[in-house]
Write a structure and sequence with these properties.
The chain has 438 residues and is α/β, with parallel strands linked by helices. The chain is built from 14 helices and 15 strands.
Length: 438
Amino acid sequence: MPPAPLPLSGKSQRTTDSPITYFIQKAIETPGLISLAAGLVDEESLPTAEIGAAVSDLMADPATARAALQYGSTQGLSSLREKVLHHVCEADGVSPAEIGLSVGDVVLTTGSQQLLYLLGEALFDPGDIVISEAPSYFVYHSLLVSKGVRVLTVPMDDGGMDVDALEALLKRLTRSGEIARVKLIYTIDYYQNPTGLTLVEDRRPRLVELVRRFSTYQRILILEDAAYRELRYSGDDITSVKRFDERNEFVIYTSTFSKPCAPGLKTGYSLLPTELVGPILHLKGNHDFGSTNLTQHVVNRLMDTGAYHRHVTTLQDVYRAKRDRMLRALEEEFGDLPGAVWTVPAGGLYVWLTLPSHIDTGPGGRLVPAALESGVLYVPGEFGHVPDEAGRVPHNEARLSFGVASSDQLAEGIRRLRQACRGLERAGSRGGKVAVGV
């Protein structure tokens, strides 16, 4: 007689593996495969010497060694929180007081992903609504599904999230009586994962104005995911959405040291509306009593010595060259394919490729096995979309990452992808590139 079934919670049963797991496993298992899929960082440029020196300095002084090896606080190392606060505000050209912030509004987390999870615990009940860009970060979509959240989307254009479409959606939800279920608007507003698009500056204050105007039943929050902000290769930095939340009421700003420094540090941070800090810390305390104290001290030392800022400059040069190599390869290989277009991101790690409509890039389409046979891997674009009311998502898009592969591998990977497409082509109008942010 088989044992009785496990009494899994509803949330556990709604939670599935990330759709990208298969593709990561394929990259690990297949010798010679060039991966343009996983959004990992460039291994050759990891700051091994700088982190080694920071750890050595910490351990050389018994007082700092003991402090780093002891338990920390749930909210995080106070000196690092102070640095984070001024780091973000200086980028925006304001003092913390000008936008209602203090060091008490900063929380350090185990990467930015933990903050996304904690926000879900603090804010969402089944049936609540989150509005996201389309396409968007599919890992966050999975988290929302596990919470029983309904995800509605608005399209993007060359300027990022279409705020006119957002306003129209909020009006429709008001008319239908559903506006009371809207809890959050999610945007990756710098060099977005997966498209590389950036929210243009004049839409940022309007985004705050919209949530203020439509917060009639309850406050609608904006989650500004700025994980890629410092990986900028073209143009000037753009003011954050948080800058326009002058009383610290509507915008959660979150970022990480993983992308601009080292993922192994697993240190993220957020600037929160004051009323949200307590609920987040209560939940975080139940998780871990505080993120790893040693790595917080390491990051703090890197910022103290200037090593962090020097490394960001180095990374900008490294990734700029890799981005440019991928874009040249796309022009060389796909410039003559009618209907092929791609973004030209000003930063981040991703290029978004749209192919002619007859080429199915999805996990069940013909291009995935053809690409694997040719020795290259990409992320199907449909993972970044939420199905519409008819259950449809685009099937001719792909996310390409230039983070891990070398310059030579990037060129060869694009060549292999074009080779895989050749057997799937049909006549159409001549394609080209969509210039974004350069």
